[in-house]
Amino acid sequence: MERFEDLKGKILSEIKNKDDELIFTLNTGEKYRLYHEQDCCESVYIEEIIGDLEDLVNTPILLAEEVVHEPGTTPKGVEPKEVYDDSFLWTFYKLVTISGAVTIRWLGQSNGYYSESVNFAKAG
């Protein structure tokens, strides 16, 4: 898998929330990370998780979607945050199973010269 959307149809056996990094373990034993490698002059973090991550475990993923919002604007329905940097980016990750839905909201801020995006990659 190379994209977050590739989780669709997979079954998760575990999800760990580790300080602005999520580790997804598939029922095959494979592990994937949703994270950002912090650099100077930036801050990228999980701003909120809406829903219960446990609703995603042991049932097929029906929807896995990444939605990157227009840079420098706050999406409708999201309480505006005071941004201290020149640039900011909201990224949403949506997962749905028959048991429930989860939206993971990330906020990236920087001086405009550093990445504000979130990475999804195979772990270790």
Could you describe the 3D structure shown?
The structure is a single chain. The chain is mainly beta and 124 residues long. The protein has one domain (4-122). The chain has strands spanning 12-17, 22-26, 31-35, 42-50, 63-68, 87-97, 100-110, 119-122. The strands form two sheets. A four-stranded antiparallel sheet has the order 1-2-3-8, with no helix packed on it. It starts with 11 loop residues before the first strand and ends with a strand.
Short structural description:
The protein has 124 residues and is mostly beta strands.
Radius of gyration: 15 Å
**Secondary-structure element series:** EEEEEEEE
Q: What value does the average pLDDT take?
A: 89
- Let me know the number of strands: 8
Distance between the termini: 14 Å
Total of DSSP H or I helical runs spanning 4+ residues: 0
Measured by DSSP, the beta-strand proportion falls in over 45%
- The tally of domains stands at 1
What secondary-structure arrangement, pairings included, does this model have?
Layout: E1 12-17, E2 22-26, E3 31-35, E4 42-50, E5 63-68, E6 87-97, E7 100-110, E8 119-122
Antiparallel strand pairs: 1-2, 2-3, 3-8, 4-7, 5-6, 6-7
